[in-house]
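Input/output pair, single chain:
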Amino acid sequence: DNQVDEFKKYKNELQKNDKVEVLVNNPYLEFWFIQHFKQTGKYFPNCANVVIELRSFDEIKDYEKTEKYYKNAKTNIYKRLKPFQMTAINNSNKLGKLDFNNIKSAKAEIYNIFAILYENK
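Output:
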């Protein structure tokens, strides 16, 4: 509860700055990756379960949550997920924004970055 309160405080402070957009992935970045393949609002209590789910998709069955995986040109996660990006945006949008009254609800607000990027083209 203390961590949630602290995050809420920081998020509220940052939102006062119109040059900052806080995008929340709850519970893990990998939840955003799952949205590329299916729409789900399932809350994963630990990262290991998210990774297991993520590996169930052929396109990313070798996923590892490691620096080596992210930096390896052969595993280029962005390139592998790019064809499914619109699916992820649409699926994540359906989940809405983080609700501090329901903190254990899955969210992938990272899709908003694409609206920001396209807006600034």
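The longest strand covers residues 25-26. The beta strands are 25-26, 107-108.
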